[in-house]
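Problem statement: downstream parser choked on a complex file, so we are re-checking the raw output for the IPE run. The parser issue turned out to be on our end (a line-ending mismatch), but while we're here, posting the original submission so the record is complete.
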Amino acid sequence: MAKKDVVVGARHVAIIMDGNGRWAKKRHLPRALGHQRGVEAVRRIVRGARELGLEALTLYAFSTENWRRPEDEVSDLMGLMKRFIMSDLDEFAAAGVRLKIIGDYRAFRPDLVELIDGAVAKTAANTGTTLAVALNYGAQDEIARAATKAAALGPITAESISAQLDTADMPPLDLLIRTSGEVRLSNFLLWQAAYAEMMFTEVLWPDFTVEHLREALDDFRNRERRYGGR
Ligand code: IPE
Ligand code: IPE
Ligand code: MG
């Protein structure tokens, strides 16, 4: 089978948006400003993903481990999320973006949960790019929750767990990008990454542009995916 002759573009890209703190530190600015610039990068990349025709973009915004950060930083991040939804939802909704949350976001403040639920409901019927935002997300937690549900329905198999993951209604993960030079998954999409292509860049998240995303997608097209076959 000449599968490798068929050049297929990525349908689903996920990004570990890392390096906001170091971006700020390099400039002797408060971390909060790094996160603020990180939100601007999110805005650009969501627009870019739409323009580049991605079916799905998953962004790691807050991990189950990020609660370990100082209270004021956690609170800054929550405030930024709230402001981002309030300022950008209309644009994304009008552009056909479907917002989805992965992770146990109901652990967040009630006002934020309410805002998120409203935003998800507002875009639920959209058929353009799916934007999955990972909030209070940890892959180990996701897999444990999925396995619990799968066990209640019948035998546990790879398929039955996959069907209960937070990403169950999304295309398979093609490409996982991490910014900031760290080469680890930090509990992100461990199951979905089984055969995803990986890309690690030194670029700090606030500096990440649509051009970087385009380059990553070009690089992806040149990779030969084998899935264990030959
Ligand atoms: C990523 O930037 C944003 C979140 C984890 C929410 P960091 O805050 O982790 O930035 P660094 O890694 O300290 O530079
Ligand atoms: C991963 O980044 C989480 C997000 C980008 C939301 P971290 O900065 O939290 O990861 P570690 O601690 O360096 O592994
Ligand atoms: Mg980090």
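For whoever reads this later: The pocket of magnesium ion (ligand 3) is lined by residues 18 (CB under 6 Å).
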